Amino acid sequence: KVAMAVWRNVETDPEDVMLGLPEFSRYWMKTRGMETPLGPLLNHLRDGNYSSEAWDREYYRGCFLVCSVDFWFDAAVQDYLQLMFKTGSDIEQRWQDQAVQNMLRLLFVKPEALHVFHNIDITHGKPADRVLRSWGCQL
Questions:
Q1: Higher confidence at residue 44 or residue 62?
Q2: Are strands 4-7 and 10-12 parallel, antiparallel or unpaired?
């Protein structure tokens, strides 16, 4: 079952963006009794160190990121988000939706539950009918 679908391009955020997000995630895990993430977060932390300096800051672009409703409203995902909102770090540390959704992917989405779209060309400025046809839609 797919929990999240993303566009193929992987980016890396600048070092001064998303500071504290891995540390917050580790705090959430410890206080909730989660020993290891369900997703591939440990593959993105140098030596398993939950720090902003050790995190590779890899992310999928937010312009094409789709979450299943079941995933989004999962109790653990909602608990993570609600704690983040209560701390105010999403505003204070500039944790925008793209960063948070990608951290949710790394924490909660098993690799087999992630779908990466490789056959979609996202280009700004194309007329909608050309984009839909490129995706195989019949008009």
A1: 44
A2: unpaired
